[in-house]
Design goal:
The chain is α/β, with parallel strands linked by helices. The protein is built from 13 helices and 12 strands. A hairpin with a 4-residue loop joins strand 3 and strand 4. Helix 2 (about 25-45) runs antiparallel to helix 8 (about 195-205), helix 10 crosses helix 13 and helix 11 (about 275-295) runs antiparallel to helix 12 (about 300-315). The protein is rod-shaped and about 120 Å long.
Length: about 350
Amino acid sequence: MALATNTEIEQKIPDQKSELELPSERIVEAASRFVEAKHLLDKLSHSKAGRLVMSRNFDYMYPYEEIPPSDAVSTLLPFYKFERACAESSEQYQAMVPTHLTIGQSWRWHPVHFHGDESKKFAHDPAQYVYIKPLGIVVAHEGKNRVALFRERQRPYIPAKVWEASYPKPDRLRIFDNGNLCLAILDDRYVEIVADWQMIKELYIAYGVSIEVTWPTAYPSLLKVLQKLYIETSHSFQESGPVDMVALQIDDNIQNTPIRVSLSDIDVIDLPILKIMCASVLVAIFLMFLSDLLSEYRELKGALKALSFCATVVCCLPVLRILKCKVQYTKKHIRLPATATLKTNLSSKTKG
């Protein structure tokens, strides 16, 4: 049976655009290599040894082996999921989508299982794809399986209904790469771990993103950012969101704010408060009783009353809030409400 050409397929789908509006040639070339790399990962996923390689960035096994397109871009493209949640066009249009720029997934069937004429199979069943226009990457939504087929049969275009997804402009992004660690920064505020910098490096250089090796001094310390990222990404990259450095700086300022505390509120001081208070009360009572017994000794009586007063002070001292201490050094039952109060006060001042 003769294979259909893309022209034959296109003629059966009305109101087609001839092609997508693509970014610069340099971005398209880099995007094509990125898509090809994902295609190679899919091939690796067909074997146990290959899945060991995949597990470097994709920390759970997929039921259909190959990586779903949405998971691939959400994991590998910094802030794609975050930005997409903020803005995405709901308007769809039909187009002939470049096969070499389309990320698919053979989860139901593989090209080897298809022996028919794709023009009859897909002409009246167009795929639905998301087009990340700034990066020139198409993400298959419905019609994932056919992508590998069109690649194998060297069909340059796939008929599809397309809607466009936004992506941050290059001047909003910064990449921090010191060789051992790679972080992406959005709007000098949000931070994400870059899952595989080598896989996207060419694409982001072509896109015009600033690549830096020195952590900016205006940001919170790298150690604090990494500590927060470790907490946020302790489950998986897919489940985590970006770390907000503004919120992190506010938290840091709050933790360094001095508040009035008692001796018992300081975290590093672990005293048997109740025992000290009880002992002090008993000592004070004993000294007062003793001073009454020795009433004929005026000087000694005065000294005993002074000591009794000191014992009373010792009794009260652990709970008197006469000290100042930074929030971060207080015990949990003091630190949490103090943090909440300071945040509320700061928010009120900001709104005002």
